[in-house]
Amino acid sequence: MEYQELHRPQYHFTARKNWLNDPNGLVYRDGIWHLFFQHNTEATTWGNMTWGHAESRDLVHWDQVDHALYPDSLGTMFSGSAVVDKYNTAGFGEDALLAFYTAAGQFVNPQQPYTQCLAYSLDNGRTWIKYEQNPIIDEIEPGNRDPKVIWHEETERWIMALYLSGDRYCLLSSQDAKSWTHLQDLTLEGDRECPDFFPLKSPSGDEKWVFTGASGNYLIGEFNGYEFKPQSPLQRFEHGQNGYASQTWSDAPNNRRIQISWMTGGLYPEMPFNQQMSIPVELTLTGSSQQLRLSRLPVNELTSLHRKTTTISEGVAAKGNSFKIQSDATFFDLSFDLIRSEANTLYIVIRGQALTVNWLTNEVKFEGARANKVVPERNPVPLPNKESNSLRILVDKTSLELFVGDGEISASFCYLPDAYSDPIVFNCYEGQQLIKNIELHEMKSIWADEKEAP
Ligand code: FRU
Question: How much is the pTM?
Answer without folding.
Answer: 0.97
